[in-house]
Write a structure and sequence with these properties.
EC 2.7.13.3, HATPase_C_sf, 51% helix, phosphorelay sensor kinase activity, 5-stranded antiparallel β-sheet, Beta-Lactamase, 19% strand, kinase, alpha+beta, 5 domains, HATPase_dom
Length: 1005
């Protein structure tokens, strides 16, 4: 028993020693982890780690090795701690060239290499040579992997002797490596965040400068002013020799339209002819179409073509940076910065700034184009509506064609507009049947020329609805016969829209420009397409009319079809009713009622499809005793199964399609509810014709509604532009008034200051002279002549009155100085930006300027001003604009009080009564509430009726007589308070008692 007992005791002692050793390792590990987490600096973390690990493991060297993945697994030691007597691995900077071949893959998988003796471990010669160079005998290496990517190694070297590495030591180093990896990740994230912060700071500073330029771009409405301001500001920002804006032509040539350049360089704007860059023409905009910039630091070192360098030398440039100007998705032009004196290294932020400015110029160009396009489109829609109305007014094709070519030519300002008709019996030959042309062009109708090459090249395209627009017939690859025919008619530019009749190509609408090439705009092409479509409708109507007439003739020839002929007449009447109205509900109501009586059925209904092919009944006409089928909820019409003997079955309903153009819009349905009915072919045909007319009516009503909606939108836009323009003019007037007041105040101030300053000395000199005179009278005998002059001059009165006169002059000059100061305070021409001011100063200045209107005169007594000023802090505002608000409100209050006095006075005169005393008072109250300044200006005038008060802030609304008010004062005042100062402006009034205006302005503007 004793030997076993000793064995157990030894096991317990050994286990206790292992536990104690593990405990010490855990403490050491915790200490190292705490040191690692105390810092975010990787160098400090590495140094702390290698120092602590070497001391804890009692190793000769501990080092951190980092790989350079781009250099084929080469790397170097970035941190170490080495015992005295051993060489440093840092100083040698040795790279392990054989690492990747043997160990990279293993270390990436997390392998730990523990070598007790490098000479017995079977290492490669290159690896063994490197370790021997560092005096290593035993080696322990743990990988540092970040996101499955090998970053480096943690190396423990034993140089003095071989060493058997314990499992606990390996596990200890592995845990240290895990925490080092976390520290490496945190360090990388910190570095990335710092880089992002630096980039953001640069971007903010750059954006501030760009924002200033953008504000200057957006302020004017004139595109030339925008170009001029932009080029000047960018050249100033980038310190360049020249900044220019280049606009493309449709053929990708172009011209400089604006520039700003330093003194000594030649202008590029106005160069003739157009500048042609063959690369841009061949690539149709090149890289700029893809919104890419292009920079060249030295044109002679950038590998440019000789022709490109020659072109740039004409611009006197040595280096340039360019960015596209996109109008929506289309390339409009280029903004270019040129350095002419020498090459230049362009910075990324400069190119980015140029690109941003280019985008904003594109927006400005787009707005300018949209405004011009909107005006042009309004004229187009007006002309289109006129043509459609003329087409609807007549069923005679010759009249319709003549009206169309005349109106279209005037709208498009073309040299010739003509209608060409094909003869289907002669293989696409044809002739012009109507035209309108200018006197410089020849008529195309007299020649009767046939286009023999049309069918081979263009017929199938026009049959598909294609509109062909040619800017220059000599610049395209067209058949010789086609060019020959057009040249015979003097045509240089050509636009052709097909005229389709029931899906078949009937003819062409031709627009010719004879004098010069012409680049047809999309709106012009769309206009021609719509005109052609309306002519197609007219052709279809003419076709239907001829069909109806033919049917009427056939019915008239057969006596057994007298009833069918009557129905055709009623059908024509129904169609006429459909065409007489553009209101779709009226058309539906008229049509269903007329067709029900026409076919003598019990119900006629119109069913409309939804996009998912469900639908609902939108109109019906039914015989007494039946219920309406018009419902709000969607429904689906069930299909009917076919039978072998379908013609023998009675069908209680029949329906025909209603098409809006090529689109199936709905169904026209006839019901016989009380009994079966066999529908005759002529009844179905009649129903089908009504369905076609309904489709045309729906299409025309939709087109008219769209035209009205667009016209309304354009009218509203034009009204808004007028209002904006008027406000700008009013603002310029007030700015001019402020400058005038400031100038007057400055001019008056100089002589008044001179007089006021000299009055002090004059008073002192006068007092001294009077003392001398008095002393002379008292202490010397006065000669008779002097005594006589004294008596004649009334010296005593002069001695008494002269100081009073000087004092009166002093008071007067002080009053003028106050008025000058008030004028300067009111105008504040040097205070256009936000700044802290005293509100009371502005109110008092305004009152002083209006002082002449407050005094009594022959027409009314004086107006009393009652001021109740609170202690207000200085408030950040636009002082000159607030003074404008005070001037408007106080002037309106004075007008209201004068109107009240005149009204009461006139009433007393009519009643032959003495006019009672009428108090005229204006109250001005200021106080601060909840971080806001509140200003109340009230009067005891006649007040404002509610129907007027609700419109007082509307632009151009005024109740004053013509010539006494524009209706903009209160509107602009409201805009200044609400939009410029983020405050509120309210008005309350009781008729007969007075009016009060309340202004609230936040203190934190």
């Amino acid at each position: 028993m004793e030997p076993n007992s000793n064995f157990t005791e030894n096991q317990l002692l050994l286990s206790s020693a292992q536990l104690q050793e593990q405990l010490e390792q855990q403490k050491a590990l915790a200490s190292v982890i705490v040191r690692i987490r105390e810092s975010l600096d990787l160098e400090k973390i590495f140094q702390t780690t290698v120092t602590q690990v070497r001391q804890l493991l009692n190793a000769d060297r501990v080092a951190v090795f980092q790989f350079d993945r781009e250099q084929n697994w080469e790397g170097e030691f970035v941190s170490e701690d080495v015992a005295i007597g051993w060489d440093s691995a840092m100083a040698v900077k040795v790279y392990d060239h054989c690492f990747g071949e043997q160990f990279a893959a293993s270390y990436e998988q997390g392998r730990v290499q523990a070598v007790a003796d490098i000479y017995k471990a079977g290492l490669s010669d290159c690896h063994l040579a490197i370790l021997s160079k560092f005096q290593v005998q035993a080696n322990l290496v743990v990988p540092l992997s970040r996101k499955q990517e090998l970053w480096g190694l943690l190396c423990i070297h034993q140089c003095s002797e071989t060493r058997e590495w314990k499992e606990s030591e390996i596990e200890f180093i592995r845990q240290i490596a895990d925490h080092l990896v976390v520290a490496i990740q945190q360090g990388k994230h910190l570095h990335e965040v710092q880089l992002q912060a630096a980039k953001l700071a640069q971007a903010v500073q750059r954006d501030q400068v760009i924002a200033k330029i953008v504000d200057e771009i957006r302020s004017p409405l004139d595109i030339e002013t925008i170009f001029k301001t932009t080029t000047q500001e960018i050249r100033k920002l980038l310190q360049a020799d020249r900044v220019a804006i280049f606009s493309f032509n449709p053929d990708w040539s172009g011209n400089f339209v604006a520039e700003s350049f330093a003194e000594g360089w030649t202008a590029l704007v106005g160069i003739q002819p157009a500048i042609a860059d063959t690369y841009l023409q061949q690539t149709q905009g090149g890289r700029y179409v893809n919104n890419e910039t292009f920079i060249v630091n030295d044109i002679y070192q950038a590998g440019l073509t000789d022709c490109h360098i020659t072109l740039l030398e004409q611009f006197q440039t040595k280096a340039f940076a360019t960015a596209p100007i996109l109008q929506g998705d289309q390339l409009w032009g280029i903004i270019a910065v040129y350095q002419n004196a020498s090459p230049r290294e362009w910075q990324s932020y400069e190119v980015e700034s140029l690109s941003k400015i280019g985008r904003h110029i594109g927006v400005a160009v787009r707005h300018h184009k949209l405004l011009a396009y909107a005006q042009y489109q309004a004229e187009q829609q007006k002309t289109l509506t006129s043509v459609i109305t003329r087409i609807r007014e007549s069923l005679d094709l010759d009249t319709i064609f003549h009206t169309t070519v005349t109106e279209a030519r005037q709208m498009l300002q073309a040299d010739r507009v003509a209608v060409f008709r094909f003869d289907p019996q002669k293989d696409w030959e044809g002739e012009f049947i109507s035209e309108d042309f200018v006197s410089e062009c020849n008529s195309v109708m007299a020649e009767k020329v046939y286009d023999y090459c049309f069918g081979e090249n263009f017929a199938h395209l026009y049959a598909q609805g294609r509109v062909n627009a040619i800017a220059d017939i000599y610049q395209g690859k067209f058949p010789g016969c086609y060019v020959q025919i057009l040249a015979k008619f003097q045509v240089r530019a050509n636009m052709v829209a097909p005229l389709l009749k029931e899906g078949e190509l009937w003819g062409l609408l031709c627009i010719h420009q004879c004098t010069a090439p012409r680049y047809w705009q999309p709106s012009e092409i769309e206009f021609a397409s719509q005109i052609a479509e309306q002519l197609g409708v007219a052709l279809k109507q003419d076709s239907y009319l001829k069909q109806v007439q033919m049917q009427v003739v056939q019915l008239a020839e057969a006596t057994e079809r007298e009833k069918a002929m009557e129905r055709q007449e009623l059908l024509a009447a129904t169609i006429d009713k459909i065409r007489q109205s553009l209101d779709i509900k009226t058309i539906f109501r008229t049509t269903t009622h007329a067709v029900r009586e026409l076919l003598e059925v019990e119900r006629i209904a119109i069913y409309r499809f939804n996009p998912d092919w469900s639908g609902k009944f939108v109109a019906d006409s039914f015989k007494d005793g039946w219920k309406a089928v018009v419902q709000t909820q969607p429904m689906i019409i069930e299909t009917f199964e076919d039978t072998d003997d379908d013609n023998e079955l009675p069908r209680n309903e029949t329906f025909v399609p209603i098409r809006e153009g090529e689109k199936l819009w709905g169904l026209l349905v006839a019901y016989q509810n009380s009994q079966p009915r066999y529908w005759k072919e002529e009844e179905i045909n009649l129903l089908a014709q009504v369905g076609v007319q309904l489709g045309i009516a729906i299409q025309q009503a939709e087109l008219l509604e769209q035209t009205k909606r667009q016209t309304l939108e354009l009218s509203q836009t034009l009204q808004e532009l007028k209002q904006t323009q008027t406000r700008l003019i009013q603002g310029e007037k007030m700015a001019g008034l402020g400058q005038l007041l400031a100038g007057v105040a400055h001019e008056i101030n100089n002589p008044i200051s001179f007089i006021f300053g000299n009055l002090i000395h004059l008073s002192e000199y006068t007092q001294e002279l009077l003392k001398v005179v008095k002393l002379y009278r008292q202490n010397s005998s006065i000669l008779p002549t002097i005594q006589e002059q004294i008596d004649k001059s009334d010296l005593d009165f002069l001695i008494e009155d002269l100081p009073k006169t000087l004092e009166s002059m002093k008071v007067g000059t002080e009053r003028i100085c106050d008025i000058v100061l008030s004028l300067r305070n009111f105008s504040r021409t040097d205070e256009a930006e936000l700044k802290p001011v005293d509100i009371h100063e502005g109110l008092d200045s305004t009152l002083l300027i209006l002082g002449h209107r407050l005094k009594n005169n022959n027409d009314r007594p004086a107006i009393e001003i009652i001021k109740q000023y609170d202690n207000l802090p200085l408030i950040e505002c636009y002082p000159a604009q607030l003074n404008q608000v005070f001037m408007n409100l106080l002037s309106n209050s004075i007008d209201a009080l004068e109107e009240k006095f005149n009204t009461i006075q006139q009433r007393s005169l009519k009643l032959l009564q003495t006019c009672p005393r009428i108090p005229l008072t204006i109250w001005i109250n200021t106080h601060a509430i909840n971080n806001q300044i509140v200003i109340r200006i009230a009067d005891n005038g006649l007040g404002i009726p509610e129907e007027v008060r609700s419109h007082i802030f509307d632009p151009f609304f005024t109740t004053k007589a013509p010539g006494k008010g524009t209706g903009l004062g209160l509107s602009i005042s409201h805009q200044i308070v609400v939009e410029k100062h983020h405050g509120q402006m309210k008005c309350s009034s009781k008729p007969g008692e007075g009016t009060e205006f309340l202004i609230e302005i936040p203190c934190g503007n």
